Amino acid sequence: MPAEIVPGPSGYIPTPAVFEEVELSPPGYGLYLGQIVDELTAMREAARAMLTRRNPTIFPGPKILWGWNAHAMEEAKAILELSAEIPNCRIIPMPDYRPKYPKIDPEAEINPNHPNLTILHNKIEACIFVGVHCHYANLSLRMIRAGTNCFTIALCGELGHEDAMVSIRDLTPEKIRRFKEVLIEVREELGIHHSPTPPPENPSLPQEDFQTLSVLDYGEYSYLLLPRKDEQVTDTE
Amino acid sequence: MGLEYVRISPGFEKYMPKDYVDLVQYGQFGKEVDVQQLGQFKELVEEHPMCAGCFMAYFIRVFYAALPKPEDTIVIGTAGCARLALSQAAVPFIYGNYGDTNAVASGLKRALNIRFPNKEKDVVVMAGDGGLIDIGFGMTMHSWFRRENFTTIMVDNEVYGNTGGQESGMSPKGVQLKMAPKGKQFEKINAVELAKTAGCVYVAKISPTNPKRIAKTVRRAVLAAREFGPTFIHAYTSCNIEYSIPTEKVLEDARKREKQDFGFYEWMTDEVKEFFEQLERAPQEVKA
Predict the structure, then answer these.
(1) What interface predicted TM-score (ipTM) does this complex get?
(2) CATH classification at residue B75
(3) Does A72 touch chain B if contact means CB atoms closer than 8 Å?
């Protein structure tokens, strides 16, 4: 009997769901709390979590954030449509997987190396991972289960994720739109009135204005940017 | 990798962190920047956890600004200080196991040639003296013997800085380090001559005191690797912690070493020389 994969915190380094007999769902099915269920049930439970838990957030990954092909752009569009239907929804992106030291801005982005920081900082209790490469999604989902009480939903273009509370596989733009329809249906059943509203913009602070920046703005460090007088690259020696 | 990977999906511009929006709008992707404009465009690497005053961090910063096509480049590093900054750059980075960077780069470059036969994809290895000339010596040399088309850059801090100050093959003779109290007994390895003998087509030794010169050297190494064969840059990037160089004296130290034993040296085969003569004579005609 597979274990029930419920929101954490389940403690430091939880046993991976796959070691607890949770299997990936076959095509046409999804996972809900570690059990194989039909896709509609998985979508309904995901919708219920996004509509009833605090601070629902979508974490789009690089596969849809960057418009590297028409399919990615269409999925991105569908995700924006979905986000508008969820009351108080936020979008916090994961544009790539590089480490961010000394510190990331947890309100502006999420990093797969410490996703729990963004989730705890923003008190997120339900989230959707979409467009994140599977190996990083697995890493993040397990880390989130370990240290937070967040209900995780994986919308996966491949086979799905055992460590998510809800996993929907073989994602396409059409499937995202179907999920949106299911979400609207569940929202009406719950009696939540909402008109489509796009999530708030990214709150990252204004950075340098590169159109007016000059080398002199670097003060005493400008010597690192300018060569010494008379020091020019000569021909090969 | 490619310009299509640095284009934000329509509608998501306002949800991306400002850093990434700036990277797309004011970054180096798809443009040629002059290294002397450094600081006036969005750089590929900004924040990093390297020590204050680290000269390697400065070299890496200039290195990224000098890449001819960052959107089509993969950087490979290994254990050591450099990877701390390399892994945070907006250029794909692969972490090789200690010593196998050049073997990984060989396979990667060949795979890229098969996957993208009509596109130039650059592979650059940047590792320390330990990763390339001590522990990675065999794989570094064999990649050169095989004449693999990628660039190897050795950021030589003359010590194992990450692990407490053990001597490396590149530490100068006689130097006393925290974990080498008797002083080094042997000469510093002559990596430049080894590279020439092993078949590199372009070899340079540099103390990074002049950003323009660093940029020109990096660019030449990358372009020569595309066309002709392995290229190698030996850069002096002092470890101000293990060698106890005060932060404000780091540049002074680099200039001192430039006068002593790290004077700029550049060597290339005749065909590479001819290639650069043509390329640099009419840069507007031959695009990087």
Answers:
(1) 0.86
(2) 3.40.50.970
(3) yes
